[in-house]
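Task card 7
Instruction: Convert sequence to structure tokens.
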Amino acid sequence: MKVDLIAISLLALSFLFLFGMTELLYHRFKWKVELTRKIAHIGTGIITLLFPILLTSHWSVLLLSSSFLLLLSLSMRFNFLQSINAIDRTSYGSLLYPISVYGCFYAYGSFNQEILFFYLPILTLAICDPIAALAGKRKPFGKYKRGSKSLSGTLGFMGSCLILSCILMWMLTDLNTFNIILYSAVVAVLSSLTETISGKGFDNLSIPLIVIIILKFIL
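Output:
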């Protein structure tokens, strides 16, 4: 438990440093909130990858996730952490993210500590979601869902998720090449469809959930 407390402290400081950096970029250097929000999104995902390495109990992850859920809730209530919250739309994504992280870690512990149950859903959120947003803004075409989604964004998500899934399954499983490609395609298609129908930041919860369900059936 002592080791976990040290790890929790180091991880908490890492998250706070990340938030401090995005606040500096937003307030001092006037970076747009959509960019600082994405930096926080990706950075949080990268730091979170250390959880299975540094933390031994899901209770430690619950403590860490709950602490940041409280911090983010207070930031929305009292209007701080504007580098994350100063967006012109309703989104609960920042609140749902720590809940998803805990859920992914719990799934990882429940399914014989198969690390893919943690890394694939977390990296799908950290990498594929920002790629979808970038593709939708840089090369927007085929807009739908009242202009909030685009075909280019969906294809960006699907393509990046396919590549990510293939890499992780090749590294972390003993599946043959055909099954890696097949299962990765299933993950990419279903998670991109889930991202498409999820609004107001709920994709931060629904995408990891669908990825874990798929992995439960194929592994």
